[in-house]
Design brief:
single chain, 501 residues, alpha/beta, 33% helix
Length: 501
């Protein structure tokens, strides 16, 4: 099935024959792609297919080795991201690009602040215009509030408002739903439909195929740096059609059956509280159990994980491991007690992007490869190779910088790092966010394998079906409190949402 209706209107943005090599690896191989005015065009493919590389070329973060880019029919050269903004091309990354300490208004107009006749910042006009831009998106927000205080959904809206501030005609959204719950996603879709009605050209990069069919007009599939095809998302087209083209074969989702007989108690949390984040949270986690933690963005789930891991202080409450109460006040202390925490923010908290794959994996366990203070590089290298193979990390080798990997492969490295610690308790915060269908299935099987080997898993996820299929029990949080305790075998998506709202 090919493109339907080609030629009905011209492309707002178009690439032709884009080639990009990294050493001996071809990341993009003569890629043709286009997005029209008033269209949401999805870009899909497995991790490492070339999606992020193509978006970086379009937004000026990378220069192509060959090929052309056209905007409104005219050939352009995008020198850098700032130049892209001046041309009217804006990208909203999965991980927020806002400056946390600056206000919402300052972030919207950062680098383009309105000036008075004397050259001073016109603060009155800045905040007035910020309010108008947010109203244009049908969104109310305190423009004087620091951006770092906002939830992930609100930060995305601010970034979209920033794009509107420069009159962007092309808006690129890179995994926008990775950290959004269902209600936040509906709000984002309302905004995108409004922008689509204004004639904006929107590129939507996502692994969540269900939402692609909800919001997109067409989809282009990339595989191994090449375009497989572009398809109109209507009629009998479904997710399995796109998956077959993404993976190059018929896809069978190997669903892992959750362990059915949890063992003895591993972790007990009693009356745990952190002011402004969550209050009076109590639960138990057992050996061989996968315990889901559901809730909307801002419910307190991530903060709870950070407190258990010692990455954030608590105001009250107790944490007991195998019946013994401990005061864990640092991540190092948590690791020493057999706790691992996979953060949803892999760029800021999960990985050192400027370091190679191998060093990221072995960072928590370097002592294991040391003798009298001397690091045994051979032993470390063999361990890294085994970890990379187990997680199927697609790279040029263990010495490749993590920053050069696709988002999904970065997540695999982050997971491999914590598997290396041989922890007994795993706090997994959105472990499959931004991961393709094949990698997601692999992560699911790995989580179940950990549980079957006796580990206890606390799984935070915004995908309710994922929880219902993997977890033994589900705790639901709302506004910092536990509002529901459900058995996965009998719970439904409606049950989870009812307790979460």
């Amino acid at each position: 099935m090919g493109i339907k209706g080609v030629g009905q209107w011209a492309a707002m943005l178009e690439t032709r024959g884009i080639v990009k090599d990294f050493g001996g690896t071809r990341a993009l191989d003569r890629v043709d792609f286009s997005v029209r005015s008033g269209e949401v065009h999805a870009l899909v493919g497995e991790n490492g297919a070339g999606k992020s590389t193509l978006m970086k070329v379009i937004s000026g973060a990378l220069q192509p080795d060959s090929g052309t880019i056209r905007l409104s029919g005219s050939r352009i050269s995008v020198d850098n991201p700032h130049h892209a903004l001046r041309l009217g091309i804006s990208i909203v990354h999965q991980h927020s690009g806002l400056v946390p300490r600056l206000t919402v208004g300052e972030n919207i107009f950062l680098g383009r602040m309105p000036r008075t006749g004397l050259g001073l910042v016109n603060w009155k006009r800045l905040y007035r215009d910020a309010i108008q831009l947010l109203r244009r998106l049908d969104f109310r927000l305190d423009v004087h509030r620091p951006a770092g205080d906002l939830d992930a959904a609100s930060q995305q809206v601010v970034e979209i408002a920033r794009a509107l501030a420069v009159s962007a005609q092309v808006l690129i959204l890179d995994e926008p739903s990775a950290v959004l719950g269902s209600s936040e996603l509906k709000r984002l879709f309302r905004i995108l439909r409004r922008l689509k009605g204004e004639g904006k050209a929107i590129v939507y990069v996502s692994h969540r195929l269900q939402e692609i069919f909800q919001i997109s007009d067409r989809a282009t599939v990339l595989k191994d740096g090449s375009v497989v095809g572009t398809y109109a998302l209507e009629g009998t087209l479904d997710s399995s059609f796109l998956i077959r083209r993404m993976v190059g074969r018929a896809w069978v989702d190997k669903r892992s059956q959750r362990p059915e007989k949890p063992g003895s108690e591993l972790l007990r949390v009693r009356g745990l509280s952190r002011r402004g984040a969550f209050d009076d949270v109590s639960f138990r986690l057992h050996e061989g159990e996968i315990l889901g933690l559901a809730g909307l963005v801002g419910a307190g789930r991530t903060d709870l994980c950070k407190v258990i891991f010692g990455a954030a202080p608590r105001d009250s409450g107790q944490i007991a491991i195998q019946g013994k109460t401990f005061h864990i006040d640092s991540p190092a202390g948590a690791v020493a007690h057999g706790i691992a925490f996979l953060s949803k923010d892999r760029h800021r908290e999960g990985l050192i992007l400027s370091q190679p794959i191998g060093r990221n994996i072995t960072l928590p366990i370097l002592r294991r490869f040391s003798s009298r203070g001397i690091l045994k590089l051979g032993r470390e290298s063999r361990f890294v190779d085994e970890s990379v193979a187990r997680m199927d990390v697609r790279s040029t080798g263990a010495r490749q910088l993590v920053a050069e990997l696709s988002g999904g492969n970065q997540q695999k490295v982050a997971f491999a790092k914590w598997l290396a610690t041989r922890a007994k308790i795993y706090l997994l915060d959105e472990p499959t966010a931004g991961i393709d269908v094949a990698a997601k299935s692999q992560i699911h099987q790995l989580v179940v394998e950990l549980a079957r080997n006796g580990a206890g898993i606390l799984l935070v996820s915004s995908e309710i079906p994922e929880m219902l299929s993997l977890c033994n029990r589900i705790l639901v949080m709302s506004k910092g409190r536990v509002t529901g305790h459900l058995q996965s075998g009998s719970a439904t998506e409606e049950d989870v949402l009812r307790h979460a709202t």
